[in-house]
């Protein structure tokens, strides 16, 4: 995000604002287990409403492609979100809601259904992006954790509506800049997650600024596989091996040391108790679930 606009919230009034939030909260038995992400947005949302704006909240919840769709709807937890925000919410289907309905409604907050229920979201479809943009006058991205994704509600929508970086995004960017430019050496960066393909640009850009880059999560499996280490049945993203090679090359050129797990917790499935193993002890039916004690000490 080398270029972004910041909204003057005090002069923005009588508008419909679509806010991309990150309400990807942990749920168990249709109950929210941690409300922190929603609480963080409460003041921001109410500030917009106090300026006589209407707010349309857009977020994903989990990964519907891999889980039962009905279990990841926002509808069962709508009441809990209302309680957290201390406001009544109008729950809407993206494909059915229109801007005219939002204007006429006596509600000030609208919550769209899980945005990943719609195929156009993850494919960054132009028509779906236009549909999202048509719901509001202004778009604000408050979902820093999702900002690396080329999805319709993050990327595509910005082509069709006046778009801004939100307060929480600006806070995260400023914090990162401070770490990169003002922190005493040595500096270490820990990057995890399952997909290396979505973070390649971030990694390449960070390498020259870091002394150590710690690779964790399922992403580490790509690096271990590149080093010809047997990772058994562990998840590994199917990407060109040249991606890992290029990261190593940039790291060597910048003098940044890449740190990978040296021992891991493995199991054959989620129901079996994990076992601590060195990398050279992994079997073909092992699945890596976590880093081991030795790796923790190194970090």
Mean pLDDT comes to 89
Number of domains as seen in the coordinates: 2
Distance from N terminus to C terminus (CA atoms, Å) equals 29 Å
Beta-strand residue fraction: 15-25%
| Highest-level CATH class of the largest domain | Alpha Beta
Helix content: 25-40%
- Class by alpha and beta content: alpha/beta
Order of helices and strands: EEEHEHEHEHHEEHEHEHHEEEEH
Please count the beta strands (DSSP E, at least 2 residues each): 14
Describe the model.
The protein folds into 2 domains: 16-170, Rossmann fold (3-Layer(aba) Sandwich); 184-298, Rossmann fold, CATH 3.40.50. The chain is globular and about 65 Å long. The strands form 4 sheets. A 6-stranded parallel sheet has the order 5-6-4-1-7-8. A 3-stranded parallel sheet has the order 9-10-11. A 3-stranded antiparallel sheet has the order 13-12-14. The longest helix has 16 residues, at 167-182. It starts with 15 loop residues before the first strand and ends with a helix. The protein is α/β, with parallel strands linked by helices and 299 residues long. The model has no long low-confidence stretch (mean pLDDT 89). Helices cover 30% and strands 18% of the residues. It has 10 helices and 14 strands.
């Amino acid at each position: 995000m080398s270029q972004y606009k910041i909204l003057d919230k005090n002069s923005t009034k009588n508008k419909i604002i679509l806010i991309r939030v990150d309400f990807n909260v942990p749920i168990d038995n249709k109950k929210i287990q941690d409300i922190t992400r929603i609480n963080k947005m409460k003041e921001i949302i109410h500030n917009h409403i106090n300026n006589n704006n209407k707010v349309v909240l857009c977020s994903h919840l989990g990964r519907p492609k891999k889980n039962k769709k009905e279990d990841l709807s926002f509808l069962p937890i709508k009441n809990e979100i209302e309680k957290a925000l201390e406001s009544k919410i109008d729950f809407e289907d993206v494909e059915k809601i229109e801007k005219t309905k939002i204007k006429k409604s006596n509600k000030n907050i609208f919550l769209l259904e899980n945005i990943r229920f719609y195929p156009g979201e993850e494919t960054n479809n132009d028509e779906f992006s236009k549909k999202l943009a048509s719901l509001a006058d202004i778009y604000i991205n408050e979902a820093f954790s999702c900002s690396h994704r080329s999805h319709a509600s993050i990327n595509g929508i910005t082509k069709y509506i006046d778009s801004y970086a939100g307060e929480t995004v600006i806070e995260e960017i400023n914090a990162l800049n401070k770490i990169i430019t003002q922190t005493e050496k040595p500096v270490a960066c820990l990057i995890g997650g399952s997909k290396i393909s979505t973070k390649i640009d971030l990694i390449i850009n960070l390498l020259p600024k870091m002394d150590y880059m710690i690779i964790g999560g399922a992403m580490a499996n790509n690096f271990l596989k590149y080093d010809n280490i047997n990772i058994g049945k562990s998840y590994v993203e199917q990407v060109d091996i040249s991606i890992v090679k290029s990261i190593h090359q940039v790291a060597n050129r910048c003098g940044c040391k890449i740190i990978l797990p040296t021992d891991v917790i493995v199991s054959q499935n989620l129901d079996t108790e994990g076992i601590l193993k060195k990398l050279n002890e992994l079997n073909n039916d092992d699945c890596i679930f976590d880093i081991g004690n030795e790796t923790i000490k190194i970090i």
